[in-house]
Amino acid sequence: MKNFHALIVGGGGTGAAVAHDLALRGLRVTLVERGEVTSGTTGRHHGLLHSGARYAVNDQESAIECIEENLILRRIAPGSFEENDGLFVAVTEEDVEYSHAFIEGCAECGIPAQRLTAAEAFRLEPNLSAETILAVRIPDATMDAMRLPLRFFASAKSNGAEIKTYTEVVGITKRGNTVRGIRVMDHATAKHYEIGADIVVNATGPWSGQVAEMAGVDVPIRPSPGVMLALRGRLCNMVINRMTPSGDGDIIVPQRGLSVVGTSSWVVDNPDNLGLPKDHVQRMYDEGAKMIPRVLDAPFRAAWSAARPLIGERKADAESGRALSRTFKCFDHADEGVEGFVTITGGKATTLRGMAEATCDVVVEKLGLEAACRTRETQLLPFEAYYT
Q: Are residues 303 and 154 in the same domain?
C-alpha cells in the first residue's frame, strides 16, 4: 500500500492523528504545516480532556464522542493526563435547577456523574465559593496541549510518515476535476515546489475553509475565537466547571503551577486575525470568581485567544458561535464534483483520534483499499520520540 501517497495539510492534533492512522494502515504519508507542529489552535487550548459533560444537555452527539475518546486516549496514551476528575458546581438556585437536566443528560450519554453536597465538594476543593450549593463529579482530566499530539506525530514518523514543517500550502494542483497534489512555499528556503499525491486531506481546523477554496469547494466553517486567562498558582486540583449551559468564563483548568480560566466566544472570518478584547479578559476574572473567588487576586501570567473550528453556515449564530455543535464532520468533496480531496474539521482536542478514524475510513475506501483502523488499541510512543 506504500504505492498510495496520502498528503495531509495541517500539523495540529487532527493532522497528527490522521498521519498516525494512515501510516498504521500502510500508506505512504506526507504532512505539511506552515509553522511548527501544534502552532495553531492545537497549541493554544486550555488542555482539557473532556468527559463530554459540558455538552450532555444541548449537544449530546458531541458529548458521546468526548466520553468515548476520553476512555480510548487514557488507554493508548498512558501518562499523558492528570486524571484529576472535574466538578460542575452550582452557586445559584438557577444552577441547581439546571443540575437536574445535567445529571439526566450525563446518564443518557454514558458519562459517570456523582452528585455531591456542598460539604463534600469543599472537602475536595477548599477554594470553592462559599455560595456553592452542590456539585457533580465527572471524569474530566487535564493534559499538555502539545505533548499529546506529539505522541501521535512520533508514532506516525516511526511508521514512515514524513512531517514537513514551515511548509505552507499556496495552491492545489488538479488534473481536470481531480486533485493531484499541492503547491507549497518552504519558509526556511523561500522555495516554491509541488508535492504530488493520490489523495489530499485538509486538516487545517479553522483554516479549512480557506484551503478548501483553493480546491474550488466549500467547507461551512465558522472560526470562533475564545479568550483564555492564565493565573499563577494552582487554585484547584480538579477541573472546575459552572453548572450552567455553555457560557463565558465557565471553566477553570489546573495546569501544573497555573490555573487557566476560559473561555469567551465570538466569530470571525479570518482565523489569523483574532484579537484579544479587554472586556473578554475581564469577563474571565468576573465569571471565574463566581466559582473560585481567589481568581480575582491571583497574579496574572498571560491571556490569549484561540479559534475553534465550528461547523456552521456564515449566517448561523453570527453573534457568538455558542449554539453551534462541537461535533466533527468529514467532507468528501467528490459530492461537489472534486475528486481526491477530503476535509476533516470541527471537533475537540479530545476527539482527535476519532476524527482521524472517520477520515481515514473515507480515504482508504476512496483508494479502493481494505485496511482497518488500528489506533484504538495501539499505544502511542512517548512525546520525546518525536525529537529523538
A: no
DSSP single-letter state for residue 347: -
Cα R_g (the chain), whole angstroms: 21
- Same domain, yes or no, for 355 and 286? no
* C-alpha grid cell, residue 2: 506504500
3 shares its domain with 17: yes
Residue 125 to residues 192, 198, 232, 380, Cα–Cα distance (Å):
55, 53, 17, 33
Q: In angstroms, rounded to a whole number, what is the distance separating the alpha carbons of residues 47 and 36?
A: 19
Residue 129 and residue 6 share a domain: no
Q: How far apart are CA 325 and CA 58, in angstroms?
A: 9
CB distance 129 to 292 below 8 Å: yes
Total domains, the chain: 2
How many residues are given for the chain? 388
Measured distance CA(91)–CA(83) in Å, rounded: 25
Average pLDDT, whole number, for the chain? 94
C-alpha cell at 348: 475537540
Other CB atoms within 10 A of residue 300 CB: 11
Give me the phi and psi of 15, to 5 degrees please: -60, -40
Please list the residues that pair with 136 across neighbouring strands.
Answer: 88, 115
In angstroms, rounded to a whole number, what is the distance separating the alpha carbons of residues 324 and 267?
A: 11
Q: Is 10 left (phi over 0), alpha (psi -120 to 50) or beta?
A: left
Closest by alpha carbon to 67, among 20, 34, 25, 113? 113
309: its cell numbers? 473550528
Q: Which three cell numbers stand for residue 175?
A: 488534473
| pLDDT tens column, 265-283 | 988 989 999 989 999 999 9
Q: If DSSP codes are grouped into helix, strand and coil, which group holds residue 155?
A: helix
Q: Residue 321 pLDDT > 70, yes or no?
A: no
CATH number (domain holding residue 293): 3.30.9.10
pLDDT at 313: 57
Q: Is 243 within a domain?
A: yes
